[in-house]
Write a structure and sequence with these properties.
Layout (H helix, E strand, L loop, with lengths): L9 H6 L4 H22 L2 H17 L1 H4 L5 H31 L11 H12 L2 H13 L3 H8 L3 H19 L8
Helix pairs in contact: 2-3, 2-5, 2-7, 3-5, 5-8, 6-9, 7-8, 7-9, 8-9
Length: 180
């Protein structure tokens, strides 16, 4: 977006009233995209922004995206990439702002202590491990589906899930039986 005041309106001018199929797609996917983005960012506002950005990209390219076998998978890849980029930028911004404004606070979803600890631990994982774990546990996606979303081989997804689970077990101090 060029910041020129009209980027959000430009696609409307280009596409007219646009396809009703997009509206149904966006309405159905938005809540799930926000949850997925939240699982990666830990911030409700950032998650809503990331989901909205992904839906804007889908809208701008709807003629192409609508032709995909799985537009839902494509838009999740956009969310995963945007969330990873936002995390990198956010870390730099927090460090810079921390010098000026003190400790920054993040908006979080009200969760029980176990859920909060789990998703915090997921966000500490490397990006692809966190994405694979979030897609698997939050959206109950198969290894094949996760591979499609992340654009990698199924074996790679299995490695990400395995390493992510091991790291989570260490972080959360879980034993094989699931008890602390």
């Amino acid at each position: 977006m060029d910041g020129g005041g009209g980027p959000a309106l430009e696609p409307a001018a280009r596409h007219g009233s646009h396809d009703a199929g997009y509206d149904a797609f966006a309405h159905a996917e938005r809540p799930r995209l926000v949850r997925f983005a939240w699982s990666l960012t830990g911030d409700v506002g950032a998650a809503e922004d990331v989901a909205q950005e992904a839906l804007i990209v889908a809208w701008q390219r709807w003629d192409e995206v609508a032709g995909f076998d799985r537009p839902d998978v494509w838009v999740r890849r956009v969310v995963a990439n945007r969330a990873a980029g936002r995390a990198r930028r956010s870390g730099r911004e927090l460090r810079a702002n921390g010098r000026w404004f003190g400790r920054a606070s993040a908006v979080t979803v009200d969760l029980g202590p176990l859920d909060e600890a789990f998703w915090h631990a997921v966000r500490l994982l490397p990006d692809r491990q966190a994405q694979a774990v979030a897609l698997h546990y939050l959206e109950d996606r198969s290894v094949a589906d996760i591979a499609t979303v992340l654009g990698c081989a199924e074996a790679t997804v299995k490695v990400h899930l395995h390493r992510g689970r091991l790291a989570l077990a260490r972080t959360l101090e879980l034993t094989e039986g699931g008890a602390p």
